[in-house]
Structures are given as C-alpha cells and as structure tokens.
C-alpha cells in the first residue's frame, strides 16, 4: 500500500519560492497519477496540481497557474512542486496523494507545512 512522504516546506516571505518533494518508498510513481493538495487553515483540502501517470500531462488550479510547476523525476522516483511568487494565501499544509481529486486520493502522508508571511 502506497504511503507518501512530503518534504520541502518552510517559512518564506511573499514573493519567495519553495520546492516541495513527494516520495513513496517502494512504489513506482511513474505508473500513478499524483496530485498535490493544499489544506489551508480552516478550509477543506483542495487540489493544487496534478501529473498523470506515464505521459506526465500536468494540470493546475487557477490560483497557482503561472506560479507553480509540477514535475516528476523518474530516476529519483520523486514528484516535485516548484512554487514561485508565493502569496500568503498559499499558506497551509501540502500533501501529495494518488489521483487529482482529493476525495479519491490514497496514501496520504503527514504533509509539509508552507507558511508565506512577512
């Protein structure tokens, strides 16, 4: 059963950048659609970005288009979320899981906290 491990979060000023990593030891991420999700304080978990299995087609929430980039390193078996031009509203815990829909995702880990604040 897949279990994801997220890392790379932290405290950053508005306009700054972070790169989040998503790994799943023993599980080949190439064959699975992977989504990044944000749970902001007091809000439900929502989809941020997604990369499909195999061909690696990507999709983004409107709120992050042009600022965030999802990618997959097949050799390192890791999915990344490069976050640029960060805004305070990007603050929350970021998770990765299977699927692009948070209601269908599996393998939820502990997440990684991102705080955007001056």
Structure write-up:
By secondary structure, this protein is mainly beta. The chain is built from no helices and ten strands. The protein has strands at 5-7, 10-12, 18-23, 34-39, 46-51, 58-60, 68-73, 78-83, 92-98, 112-116. The protein has a six-stranded mixed beta sheet, with no helix packed on it. The chain has a four-stranded antiparallel beta sheet with strand order 1-3-8-7, with no helix packed on it. It is globular. The chain starts with a strand and ends with a strand.
Topology:
Blueprint: E1 5-7, E2 10-12, E3 18-23, E4 34-39, E5 46-51, E6 58-60, E7 68-73, E8 78-83, E9 92-98, E10 112-116
Parallel strand pairs: 2-10
Antiparallel strand pairs: 1-3, 3-8, 4-5, 4-9, 5-6, 7-8, 9-10
In brief:
This protein has strands at 5-7, 10-12, 18-23, 34-39, 46-51, 58-60, 68-73, 78-83, 92-98, 112-116. It has 118 residues and is mostly beta strands.
Count the beta strands. 10
The strands making up the biggest β-sheet line up spatially as 2-10-9-4-5-6
What fraction, in percent, of the residue positions are helical? under 10%
Which overall shape is indicated by the principal axes computed on the Cα atoms?
Answer: globular
- The end-to-end span amounts to 40 Å
Which sheet architecture does the biggest sheet show?
Answer: 6 strands, mixed
| Rounded mean pLDDT score | 96
The structure class reads: mainly beta
Strand content: 35-45%
Q: If helices are DSSP runs of H or I spanning 4 or more residues, what is the number of helices?
A: 0
Please state the CA-atom Rg, rounded to the nearest Å.
Answer: 13 Å
Task: Enumerate the spans where pLDDT stays under 50 for 5 or more consecutive residues.
Answer: none
Order of helices and strands: EEEEEEEEEE
């Amino acid at each position: 059963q897949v279990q994801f491990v997220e890392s790379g979060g932290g405290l950053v000023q508005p306009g700054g950048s972070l790169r989040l990593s998503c790994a799943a030891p023993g599980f080949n991420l190439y064959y699975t659609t992977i989504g990044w999700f944000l749970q902001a304080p007091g809000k439900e978990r929502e989809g941020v970005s997604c990369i499909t299995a195999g061909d690696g087609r990507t999709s983004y929430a409107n709120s992050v288009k042009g600022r965030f980039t999802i990618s997959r390193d097949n050799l390192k078996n890791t999915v990344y979320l490069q976050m640029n031009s960060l805004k305070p509203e990007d603050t929350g815990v970021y998770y990765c899981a299977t699927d692009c829909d948070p209601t269908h995702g599996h393998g939820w880990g502990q997440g990684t906290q991102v705080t955007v604040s001056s």
